[in-house]
Each structure stands twice: as structure tokens, then as C-alpha cells.
Amino acid sequence: MPRVLLVDHDDSYTGSLAQIIWAHTGEEPDLVQSGDVRSIAGFDRIVIGPGPGSPHSAADVGRDLEILRAARVPVLGVCFGFQAMAVAAGGSVVRTRPAHGRVERVTHDGSPLFDGVPRTFDAVRYHSLVVAEPAPFAVTARAADGLPMAGEDPGRGWFGVQFHPESIGSPDGARIVTNFLDRA
User: Is 79 designated active site?
Assistant: First the structure.
């Protein structure tokens, strides 16, 4: 099983994300605050977790952009982590209608990240920023309102989701996280 670094941004969902990883790998992920990450050496997977703020703000993004630029292993970005991926790849995020705690329908394109997940599924959205289009990577899932809900750059090993797969309101979310851990 992979050794996983979980980058935290003081988000209440991070514990749930850690539990999914731990239950699947049998090992507790190394949980480190974004600003406190000193090295990514020795990890097989990196998960950049959710959190408040903007990835355009140095105070909010911590060391995420450095981590992404240095990563030579697969990375999963969740919500804020997905937005940080966009910024690290030269893209940006923009304000959108707040979707705080909304369960909405998301449709994916068949990307391996979604193996075993119905083409259209429920997911919890909890954000007021979204990856701007054109995205700097392939968009692989969208919400009913058309906004990007997942993207990937397989060449870099980057996979990201805007929604919260670790939420109880995202019944297929654990499968998405374990697909990343197993197949990225």
C-alpha cells in the first residue's frame, strides 16, 4: 500500500479524508499542515486537502504550489487542493455562486478516477471558488450547472475534485479516493 502525505488546511473535512485513506491502506496518512510541509520525499501519494481561502493568496495556499511543482508521485487535490492545482499549472480560480453543503448531481466522462462510480452521482459541494475555464488540464466531471467538478493531468499524475468525496453526502466518494490510491 502507498505511503500517503495528507496536506491539511485547517478544514473540518480533513479527518474524514484521513479515515478513508487509513481504512483503505491500513496505515494512518502523515497529516501535515500546508505551511509545515518540509519534504515530500518518501511518499507514494500526496493528497492536498480542502480548506478555506483562495489559492491565489500566499497566506491561504501555504506550501501547496511548491509541493505540486516538486511532486514526482501522484497527487489528488480535494476542493481547495484542486483549485491549487489549477493555479500551480498556470490557471486560476474565480468566484461562483456559493455552494455550501449542497448535494448536487455530478456527471463524469469515464476517467479512471471514477471507475465503479455511476456516470451521474451525488456529491457535496462546499465552495465559493471554482477552477476558471479554460482549465489548465482536462475537465473530467461537471455539475449540473456546467461548472468543473473534476480534472486531471495524467502526465503529471494530478487528479482533482471540486466536491467533497469524504462527505457522507457523497456516497461514491470513498470509491473515488481509493481509485486514486490504487490506480493513479
Answer: yes
157-178 as b/e: b if 16+ CB within 10 A? bbbbbbbbbbbebbbbbbbbbb
Concerning whether 28 is annotated as a catalytic residue, the answer is no
9, 79, 108, 152: the active-site residue:
79
Query: Is 152 a catalytic site residue?
Result: no
pLDDT in tens, the chain (184 residues): 899 999 999 998 999 999 999 999 999 999 999 999 999 999 999 999 999 999 999 999 999 999 999 999 999 999 999 999 999 999 999 999 999 899 999 999 999 999 999 999 999 999 999 999 999 999 999 999 999 999 999 999 999 999 999 999 999 999 999 999 998 6
Beta bridge partners of 122: 105
